[in-house]
Amino acid sequence: MHSRYPNPRCIVIFGVFKKTMAIAMRVIILEPYFLVRLDPNAQSLSEEELTQVQDYNFDHPDCAKHDPKVDGDTENNVAELLSEELNLRETEALKNQRRADMGLLESKKIASQYQKEADKCNSRMETCEEAREKAEMALVAQKNLSALWELRARHKGWQEGLAKSNSRSKGKLHSA
User: Fold this and answer.
1) What is the pLDDT along the chain (176 residues), one digit of tens a residue?
2) Which residues make Cβ contacts (< 8 Å) with residue 74, sequence separation at least 6?
3) How wide is the angle at C-alpha 147 spanned by C-alphas 135 and 160, nearest 5°?
4) If residue 143 lies in a helix (H) or strand (E), which one and from where to where?
5) Which residues are in coiled coils (predicted)?
6) How far is CA 17 from CA 21, 22, 26, 89, 170, in A?
């Protein structure tokens, strides 16, 4: 009876991460299997693990054939290990997704707060600009009124130089 799994000695699952141009993987030898497990924290293979990888014969001639020495329990054990590995990765992926979602939510909250502050600032700037425009119009009106009074005074014989000399002479009279 042939199993739907190939010879378990030939099952090699590997994961490669690029970390500073080095292959990062963690090797675990499970007799009679050779299993390379993903480990994102590993920087490279240890000397012992590298030796085990180099010593392993990947060109096993009956790699794709069923091995009669391997019983169903062993095959089920491999399936369980693979299933467990997938579940761990799924859990890790969900955890990472949850963390990313929380970060996104926090970013949205902060962006909303900044937007509210920016809206307040813009509103205050508009109020300030309106007040400046009103003050400028009032200043122009005051200048026009002053010019009108000066014009009336000139029509009645007021002169700028005369007014200054009169004010000086009045100042001398008050001091004497």
Assistant:
1) 444 444 444 444 333 333 333 333 333 434 344 444 445 555 555 666 555 554 555 455 555 455 566 566 666 787 888 889 999 999 999 999 999 999 999 999 999 999 999 999 999 999 999 999 999 999 999 999 999 999 999 999 988 876 566 666 665 655 55
2) 8, 32
3) 130
4) helix 72-155
5) 111-138
6) 9, 8, 11, 15, 96
**How many other CB atoms are there within 10 angstroms of residue 106's CB atom?**
10
Coil, helix or strand at residue 20: coil
Q: Is 148 buried (19+), middle (13-18) or exposed (0-12) by CB count in 10 A?
A: exposed
User: DSSP state, 156?
Assistant: T
Amino acid identity of residue 116, one-letter, is: K
Please measure the distance between the N-terminal and C-terminal CA atoms of the chain and give it in whole angstroms.
136
8, 33 contact by CB (below 8 A):
yes
Instruction: Give the separation between CA 123 and CA 118, rounded to whole angstroms.
Output: 9
Closest CA relative to residue 77, chosen from 39, 35, 27: 35
Secondary structure (3-state) at 5: coil
